[in-house]
Specification:
The chain is built from 13 helices and 52 strands. It has 973 residues and is mainly β. Among the domains are: 102 residues, 3-Layer(bab) Sandwich (Phage tail protein beta-alpha-beta fold); 91 residues, no CATH class. The strands form ten sheets. It has a 22-stranded antiparallel barrel. α3 packs antiparallel against α5. The longest helix has 12 residues. The protein is globular.
Length: 973
């Protein structure tokens, strides 16, 4: 197999350069390149020509290139550089790949240049049949993105619903317990637990207080070489979670030299952003080492800085959702309300001063933050050492510490009972009985805050060997993510009750004033908090091998085989409850399943059926692939998943590809709990149109199904890529995808009031007209809870199984597309294009037999169209990149009547200048100006209502940050 196909995909500096097809038509350019390192010289040629070159650092490090002066095409200039080096440029598609001459391949160790590409286990090959999106180092720098989550979430195939700091825990139920304000990725909108995230091919530990997502926020962006994304089912390659696809973060393992960078940005003065990084790398005759440090800080974005952060949605087409908790508050007595007047301190307040029949309302977002304060320190290091010829030891590790702090809405507003002994007591109706007061404590205690610390650390170490033309790898991986949260400025209800009953005006709590009217010492005494620790641990042993089996006329048949042993553990730690008792008490630790062990074996075969020498018309090339992975889970059993792919090139410039496979997602730890604390049975009264009284009693069973199975999906795709030789620089790609997702793990517990209103929908989980014996059995259960005092003799019309179980189905289809054209312009190279995803439908059913409903283009779900267009220009010194981002309109069904939501278009601009080698102290300096959301486009207005959370914008489809302007200076030493 051509070594070019292998080295093309290695971890390198990938920059623009020429192919022979282009060279026939491209214009020659003037080059004046001084003698220097070969890698740097190739970069300069690429920047001037705009062509793409891939040059492995292992081949260019330590190689001195001659001067190039004169007028050449890019291919001719590269040929001058490579004279006498035993290297040549091999064409791979539109790219030139620098590789060793065949005569020298067996004389030198390869140093691990044959790398794995995401979506396949066969080294040096892209996944056959599947679409792959690559965001390389240059694209990262041009995008202006600061964090890893911004990079991965920028592609149109991602839906922002789920775990990200914008939604926090207030999204539409798929936030994944994101108490630590981390960030996941959610391909196709199928949920972050259905997208597999890898760090250099290995699974990191899971984050969130339920362990449902890999936290991208812990990975330093300055240490990333590229991000590879395969938006296609891949369980046959990687196992669980790869239903929607795989995101693989590839570090800069072969970085050499030194790079210092500093960035400062501001969101129109409302939130500042800082980033500083330092990379160091060195290489010796038999090994290499690199280390990267990054500091990142972003100030909180306050709700008060955005007009659409409000509970009053009347200006956005919705209702007034201001809460009945304010300061001054409202007295409740005799079933009536009495508003407390403003501008007084509650001392000597009389009933005559109250306003009967009126309620003081407040904005629950007062003093809150839309985005948290984030502060992170990260260190990544990697080392490689040749022990013997063709045997190499390698290791890499990551340590990240992130602190977060966010002011939140109050989670514990409640009517407080004030006894007559309180010295500030007011009796509005003359009964001399305790009164209720609805009062906001935000001005007394400050906003409720979620703050804490997340620590992620771990690494991999292993041996890589070349035996003939086979590569063998054996390594171990260990990682841990520990999260600690403090929920502060809460009301301690026990100590508040004591303070309200206090008869001393100097120490009693005063709920009758406007703003803080209580002794500060009493306020401090009432201040409570909650704290909790969680951690996830993963360790794995992996052995894999791949290489050629035999040769066919079209090329070599290649095989990859491997085995894995992995153990996942997710556990809650200790916690303290200081909100419900006079003194802090330990929190009861929620028991979860013990460590889960997974044993897996897989194989993948690549067969080149026809090659370029074939004389059969319309079969210039045809590759077939097949993969199979079998896994054994300690907690639910076995699963086997296949995948097949083809890549057909009927003639030069056109490739037609397709894939078919089965994928799965294993149940999470909390979904497998079977302890009594996770289960409950209770009787409840709900609306019933078939009842003469309008209501009926039913019995609800809560908990987890003990026979829970994995979620399963069948995915297939069909696509085409066009790169015509007659129009060099043009590329077009389109992929049709189809996902049939079944046995999705879900619960209908939150839909309690709808069970009898929509009987046909819930019929599959409803036992109608249960027998007396069945009802008696459930009432006698040790986990029965008497919530409403419904007697066992009361009529029960149904028993509803609301346990977490394999319940719903989802069918999704759509297309991904990528269109671009590169051309010479103004002594540089220009490129224009657009990538996007258009979803045709997302049909979801509560159960396999229930009616399917199209949830596409509704609040809380993906929209049908997302686009990201670009126009770039690069020359020797300058680079200019403009982007346009489009999110289609949709319908908001969280309000009645349903509300149309307009589309959202934003623009980004990135301008950079690179000083030349002759610029003295500025040698190696790159200055970059970036503006995200250049024209400060506000999110589309929407009356967004999810439970008790209200906003005038949709945090799952828009960011509140606004225009972010930044300046970055990078120095290569």
């Amino acid at each position: 197999m051509q070594r070019a196909a292998i080295w093309m995909l290695t971890t390198t500096a990938a920059i623009a350069a020429a192919t022979p097809a282009y060279a026939q038509n491209e214009a020659a350019r003037d080059y004046d390149i001084a003698p220097q390192n070969l890698g740097q010289a190739l970069q300069q040629i690429a920047l001037v020509s705009g062509r793409q070159v891939v040059a492995p650092s292992a081949l260019t490090d330590g190689v001195q290139a001659p001067a190039v002066k004169g007028r050449y095409t890019a291919a001719e200039a590269i040929a001058v550089l490579l004279r006498g080096t035993a290297l040549h440029a091999e064409p791979i598609g539109k790219t030139l790949v620098i590789q060793r001459d065949r005569s020298s391949e067996n004389d030198e160790p390869q140093d691990g240049n044959d790398i794995l590409v995401t979506g396949t286990r066969i080294r040096g090959r892209a996944p056959v049949g599947s679409e792959m999106v690559t965001i390389d180092r240059r694209a990262i720098e041009q995008s202006g993105y600061t964090t890893t989550q911004q990079i991965a979430q920028s592609i149109p195939q991602n839906f922002a619903g789920g775990a990200n700091e914008n939604t926090g825990t207030a999204s539409t139920g798929i936030g994944g317990g994101n108490a630590a304000r981390g960030a996941g990725v959610n391909l196709r909108g199928l949920g972050q637990s259905s997208t597999l995230v890898l760090l250099n091919g290995d699974r990191p530990p899971l984050g969130g207080n339920t362990g449902t997502f890999a936290d991208l926020s812990m990975i330093p962006s300055s240490a990333i070489e590229r991000v590879e994304i395969v938006p296609d089912g891949a369980s046959a390659i990687y196992g669980s979670d790869a239903v929607a696809g795989v995101v693989n973060i590839i570090p800069r393992l072969t970085f050499t030299g030194a790079e210092t960078s500093f960035r400062i940005g501001t969101a129109d003065g409302d939130a500042q952003e800082y980033q500083a990084s330092q990379l160091l790398g060195t290489k010796w005759s038999s090994g290499r080492f690199m280390i990267a440090y990054e500091f990142y800080k972003r100030d909180a974005l306050h709700a008060g800085d955005r007009h659409y952060a409000t509970d009053d949605l009347r200006a956005f087409g919705g209702p007034d959702r201001r809460v009945a908790y304010a300061s001054p508050g409202t007295i409740y007595a005799g079933g009536r309300t009495f508003a407390i007047p403003a501008g007084q301190n509650g001392v000597g307040l009389t009933a005559a001063q109250l306003t009967p029949g009126t309620t003081n309302t407040g904005n629950s977002q007062f003093m809150t933050d839309l985005l948290p304060d984030q502060r992170r320190h990260s260190v990544f290091a990697a080392a490689s050492q040749e022990l013997f010829p063709h045997l190499r030891f390698y290791a890499r590790g990551l340590l990240s510490i992130r602190n977060f702090d966010q002011a939140l809405r109050s989670s514990a507003d409640s009517r407080r009972t004030v006894p007559v002994t309180n010295p500030f007591y007011v009796d509005p109706i003359g009964t001399h009985l305790p009164v209720g007061v609805q009062y906001s404590f935000v001005r007394d205690l400050g906003a409720e805050r979620y703050r804490g610390k997340v620590t992620a650390y771990g690494g991999s170490a292993g041996l890589a060997a070349d035996i003939g033309r086979w590569s063998i790898d054996a390594h171990g991986t260990w990682g841990r993510q520990a999260e600690h949260y403090d929920d502060i400025n809460r009301v301690n209800t026990a100590r508040l009750a004591v303070s309200l009953a206090d008869t001393n005006p100097a120490t009693a709590y005063n709920l009758f004033g406007d703003g803080p009217s209580t002794n500060p010492a009493t306020i401090a005494k009432v201040r409570g908090s909650l704290s909790q620790d969680y951690d996830g641990i993963v360790w794995a042993l992996t052995t894999r091998a791949d290489g050629p089996l035999f040769a066919l006329p079209a090329g070599e048949v290649r095989l990859a085989v491997g085995g894995e042993y992995r153990q996942d553990r997710y556990r809650p730690g200790t916690g303290v409850n200081d909100v419900s008792a006079l003194t802090p008490i330990p929190l009861n630790v929620v028991p979860l399943q013990g460590p889960r062990t997974i044993k897996a074996a897989y194989g993948e075969l690549l067969v080149p059926v026809f090659g370029q020498e074939a004389a059969i018309p319309l079969f210039r090339r045809l590759d077939l692939s097949a993969a199979l992975r079998a896994e054994n889970y300690s907690d639910f059993g076995n699963t086997t998943n296949p995948k097949f792919g083809f890549s057909w090139e009927p003639f030069a410039g056109l490739t037609i590809r397709g894939s078919y496979g089965k994928s799965f997602r294993a149940p999470l730890s909390q979904e497998l709990r079977q302890d009594p604390g996770s289960m409950a049975i209770f009787a409840f009264t709900v609306a019933d149109p078939q009842s003469t009284t309008g209501t009926s009693n039913l019995i609800v069973i809560r908990g987890n199904d003990p026979n829970l199975r994995p979620e399963r999906a069948t995915t297939w795709s069909l696509g085409a890529d066009l790169k015509p030789a007659v129009l060099p620089g043009l590329h077009a790609g389109v992929t049709y995808f189809n996902v049939q997702y079944r046995d999705r793990i879900a619960s209908i517990a939150s839909q309690l009031t709808s069970y009898l209103v929509n009987r046909s929908v819930y019929a599959p989980v409803t036992e109608a007209n249960p027998s007396a014996a069945r009802v008696a059995e459930l009432f006698a259960s040790p986990i029965y809870l008497d919530l409403l005092g419904i007697p066992a003799t009361a009529p029960i019309v149904a028993v509803v199984d609301a346990r977490t179980q394999n319940l719903s189905v989802l069918n999704q289809t759509g297309i991904d597309f990528d269109l671009g054209y590169g051309f010479d312009a103004a002594e540089g190279r220009a490129d224009v294009g657009v990538v996007g995803t258009h979803i045709f439908y997302i049909r979801q059913g509560l159960t396999a037999t229930a009616p399917l409903t199209n949830i596409l283009d509704t609040a809380g779900n993906p929209v049908d169209l997302r686009l990201r267009g670009h126009a770039t220009w690069n020359s020797t010194h300058w680079n200019v990149a403009g982007f346009v981002n489009y999110v289609g309109g949709y319908t908001n069904k969280t309000v009645t009547p349903a509300q149309p939501v307009s589309s959202w278009t934003t623009f980004d601009l990135n301008v950079g200048y690179r000083f030349s080698r002759s610029d003295g102290a500025f040698k190696g300096v790159r200055v970059t100006f970036n503006a995200s959301n250049l024209f400060d486009g506000a999110p589309p207005t929407i009356a967004y209502i999810v439970g008790q959370n209200t906003n005038g914008y949709d945090p799952e489809n828009a960011s509140p940050l606004g225009r972010l302007i930044s300046l970055q200076i990078t120095k290569a030493w």
